[in-house]
Specification:
Radius of gyration of chain B: 21 Å
Number of domains of chain B: 1
Helix content of chain B: 40-55%
Largest sheet of chain B: 5 strands, mixed
Helix content of chain A: 25-40%
Order of helices and strands of chain A: EHEEEHE
Distance between the termini of chain B: 41 Å
Largest sheet of chain A: 3 strands, antiparallel
Number of helices of chain B: 15
Order of helices and strands of chain B: HHEEHEHHEHHHHHHHHEEEEHHEE
CATH class of chain A: Alpha Beta
Largest interface: A-B, 16 and 20 residues
Number of strands of chain A: 5
Strand content of chain A: 25-35%
Shape of chain A: globular
CATH architecture of chain A: 2-Layer Sandwich
Number of strands of chain B: 10
Oligomer: heterodimer
CATH superfamily of chain B: Cytochrome P450
Strand content of chain B: 5-15%
Distance between the termini of chain A: 7 Å
CATH architecture of chain B: Orthogonal Bundle
């Protein structure tokens, strides 16, 4: 089990998370990402969270394992 | 801006043959405005397609991957992937599929952040070398002697190809680009150049696969994402694509930036000379005012309703980025080129098209799933090239008092907009 959160103060709304990993992230009307799950209970979701954290240009995605 | 405040074009029907005429290729903006004002969802029965021309409608289509797909091609479909395309198998043909996501994720990281920063000193060096050859001349032709020289030499160096092969590479580049839209003979020459280039790359790819290398070719041969790598064919297709998508577009962007500072707004050159950071604004405003790429094509995957019109499933939809960028519902005085405008996000682009400063961005790179992968690279390279020319050559002025203007071979077939010639002299 792992947890993921987004720091919206650091987020620059680049969109890399929701375009690359729609399984876990969605874009809201402001262009900010929202999470479809906070608690990641499958290896697939954990993989998406980790990749998104690496790809995020603002390092605004935090995965706590 | 309230729609009531907009000065609309006279209401006129559109004859779809206007899209094929030379007037449209020279100045598409009047027709764009008629589309935006009176035909926001235009069904072009003559060309069997639909047209979207307003900024937020284009944004909607870009964001809605469930309704709009980039490509009709399906892996496993009836024709062999990439056989009849100058680029061979490449990422653009994959549409919204997982295959596209896989390939994009493998390569996208190579063109941003630290990996891009690693290439910056080399970009400076190439630009200096190219300007060096012009320094002694009182006049020069920007397109052939400068703009079309820089990006392709940069790509060749990024790939880590031997410098003595650079001129050969430039030759393949010109043949490939010529093969992109002018019929049989050019296509054949383009495909022949592609095959020559691929034969040249074959042993280099083999030598670099499985080895650590900092050049782009080594990186894309070995880049791994979740256990997946690009196949050799995909690497080669990608290199070919890089020449056009990364070379030709940047080449034309540099020419457009100078064109506007020479002919559209010569009064704004002083500000740029005083503050070279403004090259960023020149780039952004060029991408809004008259970007290199004016169209993107989508196919509907289900029925879509917009402005009370029903676009059926499996329809071809043209998004006129060049029109959305002039949408008076979004930008004040949209037909004025102004590097100081405060209603456009001037900095680095976001794939989402959404910015913290609340301002809209230009549409010139597209938005969303298929947003230009080389956006940061194109911006950096264009800015550095323009800055170097100014620093090392000195202030240029147009050689001729008038210019025939920017045009494009055919906007609808993806014809890139750029001046074919731009003669400059020492000011």
């Amino acid at each position: 089990m792992a947890k993921v959160r987004i720091d919206l103060d650091t987020c620059i709304r680049a969109g890399e998370c929701y375009y690359n990993h729609p399984e876990l992230f969605r874009m809201n009307d402001n262009g900010e990402p929202t999470l479809l799950a906070r608690e990641l209970d499958t290896p697939e979701l954990i993989r998406h969270a980790r990749e998104a954290a690496v790809v995020c240009p603002a390092s605004a995605i935090i995965v706590e394992e | 801006m309230a729609e009531a405040a907009i000065q609309t074009a006279p209401r006129t029907d559109i004859d779809p043959r206007e899209f094929d005429g030379p007037a449209f290729q020279k100045n598409p903006f009047d027709l764009y405005k008629r589309l935006r004002d009176h035909h926001p969802v235009y069904h072009d029965r003559f060309h069997n397609r639909w047209i979207l021309s307003r900024y937020w409608d284009i944004d909607t289509a870009f964001q809605d991957n469930g309704s709009f797909d980039r490509a009709q091609y399906r892996p496993g479909g009836p024709y062999k992937f990439g056989t009849n395309h100058v680029f061979g198998p490449n990422i653009l043909e994959y549409g919204n599929s997982n295959e596209h996501r896989r390939l994009r994720n493998i390569v996208a990281g190579q063109f941003v952040g630290q990996k891009l920063d690693d290439f910056i000193p080399m970009i400076h060096q190439i630009c200096e070398e190219v300007v060096d050859r012009l320094k002694g001349s009182d006049t020069f032709e920007l397109v052939t002697q400068f703009s079309s020289q820089v990006p392709i030499r940069v790509i060749s160096n990024m790939l880590g190809l031997p410098r003595e092969d650079e001129d050969t590479f430039v030759g393949w580049y010109h043949a490939l680009i010529a093969g992109l839209g002018f019929g049989g003979e050019h296509l054949a020459r383009g495909v022949a150049a592609r095959n020559e280039m691929w034969a040249y790359l074959d042993p280099i790819i083999d030598a670099r696969t499985g080895k650590d290398g900092e050049d782009l070719l080594s990186r894309i041969c070995n880049a791994e994402l979740a256990g997946s790598r690009m196949t050799k064919e995909e690497v080669k297709g990608f290199v070919a694509l890089l020449l056009a998508a990364g070379g030709d577009t940047t080449d034309k962007a540099i020419s457009n930036m100078w064109y506007h500072l020479m002919y559209t707004r010569p009064d704004q050159l002083d500000a740029v000379i005083a503050d070279p950071d403004l090259w960023q604004n020149v780039f952004t405003e060029m991408m809004r005012y008259d970007a290199v790429v004016h169209t993107q094509l989508r196919y509907t995957t289900r029925e879509v309703v917009m402005h009370d019109q029903v676009i059926p499933e499996r329809a071809g939809v043209i998004l006129y980025l060049g029109s959305g960028n002039r949408d008076e519902r979004v930008f004040r005085n949209p037909d004025t080129f102004d590097i100081q405008r405060d209603d456009l996000h001037m900095g680095r682009e976001n794939r989402s098209g959404r910015y913290k400063d609340g301002k809209p961005g230009h549409l010139g790179f597209g938005i969303g799933q298929h947003f230009c992968m080389g956006y940061a690279m194109a911006r950096q390279e264009s800015q550095i090239a323009c800055m170097k020319l100014l620093q090392l050559y000195g202030r240029p002025a147009p050689r001729d008092a008038t210019h025939p203007g920017i045009t494009s071979p055919n906007i609808d077939s993806g014809g890139f907009r750029s001046p074919s010639e731009l003669w400059l002299r020492k000011a």
